[in-house]
Amino acid sequence: MTDVRPLDHTFTTVLQGNMGPNNWTCAIMADSLATLGTGKAIKVVATVEGNTFTTSMLPHKGGHMLPIRKSLQDAIGKHAGDTVTVHLGELQD
Q1: What is the mean pLDDT of residues 45-71?
Q2: CA atoms 6, 7, 8, 14: torsion sign
Q3: DSSP label at 3?
Q4: Nearest Cα to Cα of residue 25 among 57, 76, 69, 86
Q5: Neighbours of 43 (CB within 10 A)
């Protein structure tokens, strides 16, 4: 059974390209440990520029990174180097 915890956290960041083993484009949340309560991968419901989806935030240099699919980048017209606003609505353990 999935444990769902509500969260209401918004951050703004510049999309970073060539991240991870598959050269993803990611939104980096640098000070995520206090907000997410873990340094491990964690499933979240995220909204990026008005588009909501469920994904995993992955550990990255003491924080977390949120992979942003190419289809979402194209839909919002933002790619590596562009600034985005991310809202995290819940955590799913």
Answers
A1: 94
A2: negative
A3: -
A4: 69
A5: 15
CB 51 within 8 A of CB 11: no
pLDDT recorded at residue 2:
65
Residue 74 main-chain phi, psi, to 5 deg: -65, -40
Distance (Å) of CA 61 to CA 2, 32, 51, 70: 27, 11, 26, 23
Q: Give CA–CA dist 36/49, Å, rounded.
A: 21
Q: Enumerate the domain spans of the chain.
A: 4-92
- Residue 45 pairs in a beta bridge with 54, 90
Range among 4-13, 44-53, 84-93 rated most confident? 44-53
Residue type, 55: T
Fold of domain 4-92: Elongation Factor Tu (Ef-tu); domain 3 (2.40.30)
Angstrom distance (rounded) from CA 45 to CA 54: 4
pLDDT tens profile 2-23: 677 888 999 999 999 988 778 8
